[in-house]
Amino acid sequence: MKIYSYIMLVVFCFLVSCKDDEAARLEANAKDSKKNEQIFASIDKSWNFNTPSMNPSVASIIQNWDEWRLFMTELNQKPKSSIGAFQQKAKTLSKRVIDLNNHIPAVFDKPEVRSRIMTLATKVRSLDLYINLSHIQEQKVIKLIPEINEELASLTSQMDEIVKKSQIRLEEGEAEMLQSLGKDSLKTPQPPSEQPKPSNTTQQGGIIPHHNPKQKSQ
């Protein structure tokens, strides 16, 4: 009888313990869910990436740069459903930003452009890191968004500056060419060389021989 009572007591304690654990687990899940909802709302409010305005000449040059187009498309598509959607978006952006190093248009394939791409990539990959931690670093994620916008603006500004400098060099070259042509046009033309006079002259269709003063008259 004592053994039976002891077993019943153990079973009862086990059931109570399980019930308490389940209640604690549900409470923890509820807290995590509420926290994720708050994080989602905060990140959703701050997740605003700017598409920088571009000089038409720059836009024309990069129109066939597929890596740039794919990166900007992903950047402008804002997640909506959950914090998980933001996490997946950050992973995709992290890959797309590294791809920007591929097939850079020749006019922009310069150290100053590549350095800005790497700085932008560092910011985007940090965003990916902080939002995909088990405990999301919400404030760091929010802080990185305007920093990414600044780096993106710096990159497009550098491309714009390269195009403007190339146009200035072209205009200076055209001015030098026009100046050179102007100088050539001011040169004094050389007079035509004198033609030798013919020994005989024609008059009314006939030939008049020269009179020889030494010839005696007949």
Q: How would you sum up this structure, described in words?
A:
With 218 residues, the chain is mainly alpha-helical. It is 68% helix and 3% strand. It contains six helices and two strands. A two-stranded antiparallel ribbon has the order 1-2. The C terminus is likely disordered.
Break the fold down into its secondary structure elements and pairings:
Elements: H1 2-46, H2 56-62, H3 66-76, H4 83-99, H5 111-131, H6 138-185, E1 201-203, E2 206-208
Antiparallel strand pairs: 1-2
Helix pairs in contact: 1-6, 3-4, 4-5, 5-6
List keywords for this structure.
218 residues, mainly alpha, rod-shaped
Kindly summarize this structure in a few lines:
With about 220 residues, the protein is an all-alpha fold. The protein contains six helices and two strands; from the N terminus they run H-H-H-H-H-H-E-E.
Please state the CA-atom Rg, rounded to the nearest Å: 43 Å
Strand element count: 2
| Beta-strand content bin | under 5%
Give the count of helical stretches. Answer: 6
The whole-number mean of residue pLDDT values reads 81
Structural class: mainly alpha
How helix-rich are the residues, as a percent range? 55-70%
